[in-house]
Design brief:
The chain is of the alpha+beta class. Helices cover 32% and strands 33% of the residues. Strands 2-3-1-4-5 form a five-stranded antiparallel sheet, covered by helices on one side.
């Protein structure tokens, strides 16, 4: 069964964010990818930007383990302030998959 952690972040400078925000997204994505791979809890599958938001996609066999790795990284990122992460326990096509939302309050708030 594939679980997911999907983080939704707010871009404050334009529909696709400023150059500074896009650079911060790339750095955050690299950090998440490294940490997830090093801990062997799944994979970082990329990001989408648009409409003033950034969505980060992470998948693995256990949403709680993925979130345990991703949460401190997201909380430390000023870009994540005000964002949310959704832990999904099951496949996206499964109507019975449980989803749990967590809000980020970062050290930069």
């Amino acid at each position: 069964m594939e679980h997911a952690v999907i983080a939704h972040l707010i871009l404050r400078e334009g529909s696709f964010g400023s150059g500074r925000e896009r650079e911060a997204v790339a750095d955050l994505a690299d950090e998440l990818q490294r940490a997830i791979e090093e801990r062997g809890v799944g994979e970082f599958d990329g990001e989408e930007l648009g409409e003033g938001r950034c969505v980060l996609f992470m998948y693995g066999p256990d949403a709680d383990q993925l979130f345990e790795v991703a949460e401190p990284i997201l909380k430390a990122a000023s870009l994540a302030h005000g964002g949310v992460a959704i832990k999904r326990y099951g496949d996206a096509r499964d109507p019975d998959a449980v989803e749990v939302k967590s809000t980020f309050v970062t050290a930069f708030s």
